[in-house]
Amino acid sequence: MKRTYLDYAATTYIDPKVLKKMKPYLADKFGNPSSLHAAGREARFAIEQARIDVAKVLGCEGKEIIFTGSGTESCNLAVFGIANFYKDKGNHIIISKIEHPAVLEAAKKLENQGFEVSYLNVDANGLVDINELKEALKKDTILVSIIYANNEIGTIQPIAEISEIVKNFRQKSGAVSLFHTDACQAAGALDLDVKKLGVDLMTLNGSKIYGPKGVGCLYISKGVNLEPVIVGGGQESGLRGGTENAALIVGFAEALKMADKIKISESKRLAGLRDYLIKNILKITRSRLNGHPEKRLSNNINVSIKGVEGEALALMLDKYRICASTGSACSSRKLAPSHVLLAIGITPELAHSSLRLTLGRKTTKKEINYVLKVLPEVVEKLREISSIKI
Amino acid sequence: MKRTYLDYAATTYIDPKVLKKMKPYLADKFGNPSSLHAAGREARFAIEQARIDVAKVLGCEGKEIIFTGSGTESCNLAVFGIANFYKDKGNHIIISKIEHPAVLEAAKKLENQGFEVSYLNVDANGLVDINELKEALKKDTILVSIIYANNEIGTIQPIAEISEIVKNFRQKSGAVSLFHTDACQAAGALDLDVKKLGVDLMTLNGSKIYGPKGVGCLYISKGVNLEPVIVGGGQESGLRGGTENAALIVGFAEALKMADKIKISESKRLAGLRDYLIKNILKITRSRLNGHPEKRLSNNINVSIKGVEGEALALMLDKYRICASTGSACSSRKLAPSHVLLAIGITPELAHSSLRLTLGRKTTKKEINYVLKVLPEVVEKLREISSIKI
Question: Does pTM top 0.90 for this prediction?
């Protein structure tokens, strides 16, 4: 029986066209991009072309793009980088309560070091409270970091509106108040034009856009400075030490170009499948949708089903060769309920009853129908066991 | 004309057998290792097997191995990780003057933050001054970091002897004084048994051992604690956030196993070629060997040739399709003379006249003879131009 992979938000496969572009750099074109000889230059050339390609998608200049080893590293570089560079100008950071751990844990670490962190509440649909943001901004604010589209519940924030508020405050107050968005989940689905979005920093990575794992990028608007997190040979304009990885960088750029090119048609297709799936899952009694009903990623379904443990549900689905998740992959091995689900105000019990299904390029109506056949049966079985327990 | 690649210390190609092992994880087996479902588990299983394989080569336990995104990141994790975890127990760090920038720049950053750093001198052959080490150790010393085999001049340090000194001091004084070695260049050439070496932490990476770029590992002896550098989803026992990269990790483990298996025979073969090359290069007038005449990596040749600019020499060799380097790839785009060559006491002028040739698995006697034919001609030409200038 074929596997039904519905965990595209955890990670995607590498598109064969992307892998094909990477292959020369995994084989003959293996030179160190910092070497001056021909073998180094061909790798350097590929990286600089990739940088231009990425910049084109983002509507920025190549020199505003830094390649890193992951989305997590890019988020860390944004948060630690800004905090450590501008600490003399202020020690206040604002993030939302539903950030990915890459931002959340970085902010917590800074809090332990003496920075002040404001954690913005979100409403029941996962939208950041704009008034709270306005009130939180102060002279000491050096960074605001808000996730573009949430990895667990798919809620899309009004990034351009938030940028506007942050920038107006900056101009008025003279505060540093830079704005970073983690766009890892948004890439391939939403507009990534940094000028339209108005962001100062933006994180993307390869493993969510049918590119390779192990590569991310950080857009850093001209004039914005950062302290590096990883230091060494001065690569990536001194912002990220370590031999540059031509194969992964070329793959990332190719994946981003491709994802951006097909994003409108693919989003439309996936939204149709998503809505069909949501409508039918919600026929299960005592189930509810988590996240915004409209402002959500076209591939995201997150539901809570009362009387069922999410983990048991995912493991049962796995027996039917359906790959699903209880929340983010990062937190799937932890026992604590999802911080995102708690932030939208659902109980810890209901948070433990959540299931995330995320669709992707290979997802078909047939697969969705298969899930809709299996899921209610599995829920019923688990509820039976659970009622016996009680 | 075929390319003559003599820059294996900058980076190696990926061995085809290694790439073959990686391929399933670049294709079908793409799951997120933190996902609980089958696609996640198969990636997790591969990573844990790789961890065991790496541990076996190092003679340690799997849980003492942490995978990272590069050798630079591993070195940073060792230096920053120890410094930040043990800062309440002491603020003194000892490194040698010939560390790779991954350690050197990390130590400098800590120095700027208020840590005290002792930079040990090396002798004319690049060996660390053991007496200076003994004198430098003090109650406040939390970390000693010394490169196993230098990336520029190939000098091999007596790591077991240094460990002994550091450990004896630790036992006597009660100081934290942990010992890290950067073994990126040593891997595949020297013994990596951490018990015999007596190290507390050791860095390795993929890109120097015919494995992929973008992956490194850090051996962390049981009982030693670290502050993570990159935080996020709690991967790698909370020491390195970011989706684990099964493809690169599997490739790294396979490369390490293979490199370790053939290290004795291959080192012998390369040492023969190296000595032949050195002997004949030194026939060029006013040339000298940099680094230790015996205690040096079997693949490393580093010479200074008076009256010739190293960079011009490397670029001329490039025209003959010979890939060589002036020093490390990391520093090849910088104008400052090599800190390693200055540390062994040669003049800035002579440091600028250096050429590094590093041999590898595909290096043949025929290639060496080709270099020996081209190099003296090129040197003569450059000296002519240079004498005209004067």
Answer: yes
